[in-house]
Specification:
homodimer, DNA-binding, 18% strand, four-stranded antiparallel β-sheet, alpha+beta, 9 helices
DNA sequence: CGAATGCTTGACTGCGGTCAAACGATGTGG
DNA sequence: CCACATCGTTTGACCGCAGTCAAGCATTCG
């Protein structure tokens, strides 16, 4: 009998096995080691789920957001210009939060909209944990902080894409980005990963027109770098995509 | 005799009058009320100045930056693509910092280059203040935090510009942004404000080519929205610029 | 089954990039 | 002091990536 098996009998597993860990928890756990109590706190949050459908407004913007944790589906932070043009600032996927990190107050001033059906939970306890560093939930606090740093890193990558890359490069880089994020949350399988966005949404994120997004996706598919079916995507050659994206 | 005058005699002025306050201090003081001790701490930092010329590397990137406070001149955070294309992520002006805010660790992973001649100072004391919230320097800590929030806000504005605005709109918005920043630092006079950037630098910031930056600046000048001379800029009609920029 | 939504394609246009050359300002060494 | 080099700005000609317009398909849904 393996020692691991003995361990498992003596004390309850401090952290649930990844197999049945929900994506949001899995993402947080990938950012910093979490104790059993910390797992439990997040689970508590996730107990009462609110489900909204695509297009719903999760946060109107203009004020600081109430703390929420995304459990399933995608949302996006977006800004609208006076004449109706829109720019998506970033996507929120399972495990991502709004209104939790004090350092993201400015980010939380922009509107958040559900891009697909979204399950979310009240994340007030997480906001408390993030605020004061003296609790027993230091691992969780670090995970939240780390989540914010990653979001900032993605913003910078996106800035470079929009400023200096063409449609082809932008799309390649963005796909890699999404893959990496969903992989952390355990949402990437051999059959690919969920990509619940219309080409219009993608256009608003990549700073392109819908028509050109379509052309670009087709090119990627033609070249065997992207497969799309039933809202799922597969990237058969990620290293090639990375070359195209200039490792951004 | 006014009570203020009495106050002034009894204890030394807690905060120097703005008239002779150097720009960096003035910016910080505009972000949060600072005590005399806090002023003094910053002054201490600013005692030993290091001067570098345009083009110098203030921070090579790839690692967390050593804390520094910009006292004079402009620097920029920039990223370079494998093929040489460059994107400037943001400018650092008097009162701005690198390597100080823990929440900006990712930002501080990119290279920082002097755009003009730059005077900077060791900001390690500020990094300490920013880190622990229990010191007597709470106002300064808040100013540093606020500075970071503003930088994030500017990143988001820039993202929208690059994603959804044309050259004319981008330039207008960027000029307003610079004006607002320098105004906080007390660097805007009737004769305008310093704009120590070549058109090539501007191109790398706005995601345009040098030639097109030139054309765009000329258009703004032709329309009486911008005056440029000897490295200084004046914006005769800021409300018009704001319309063009879509208030971004 | 029609209506709505999203995807796809083609034709045309235009903003902004590229290339090239000239010009002005500044600086440097003979 | 001038010849020359360098750097930044300016202008013109041309081109191409991506936007716009418009129509036709494909799916989904009531």
């Amino acid at each position: 009998m393996l020692t691991q098996d003995i361990d498992r009998r003596i004390r309850p597993a401090p952290a649930p096995r990844t197999v049945d860990t929900p994506p949001a928890l899995r993402l947080l756990a990938s950012l910093a080691p979490l104790s059993g109590a910390e797992f439990e706190l997040v689970r508590q949050c996730a107990r009462r789920v609110e489900r909204v459908q695509a297009g719903s407004i999760l946060h109107p913007g203009g004020e600081v957001a109430t703390p929420r944790l995304i459990l399933a589906g995608w949302a996006c932070r977006m800004r609208t210009l006076p004449d109706g043009r829109r720019q998506i600032l970033g996507f929120l996927m399972p495990g991502d939060m709004i209104g939790v990190r004090p350092g993201s107050r400015r980010l939380d001033m922009d509107a958040v909209t559900a891009v697909s059906r979204v399950d979310s939970a009240d994340a007030s306890p997480l906001a408390v944990v993030a605020e004061d560093g003296t609790t027993a939930y230091r691992g969780l606090a670090r995970a939240i902080e780390s989540s914010g740093e990653l979001e900032l890193a993605r913003l910078l990558d996106q800035l470079v894409r929009l400023g200096r890359q063409n449609a082809y490069e932008r799309t390649a880089g963005w796909l890699l980005d999404v893959h990496a994020r969903l992989d952390r949350a355990g949402l990437v399988e051999k059959a690919g990963f969920p990509l619940p966005v219309t080409q219009e949404v993608l256009a608003d994120a990549l700073g392109l027109s819908v028509v050109h997004v379509n052309r670009t996706l087709q090119q990627l598919r033609r070249e065997g770098l992207l497969q799309l079916q039933a809202g799922r995507a597969t990237l058969p050659d990620r290293s090639r995509l990375a070359e195209i994206a200039g490792r951004v």
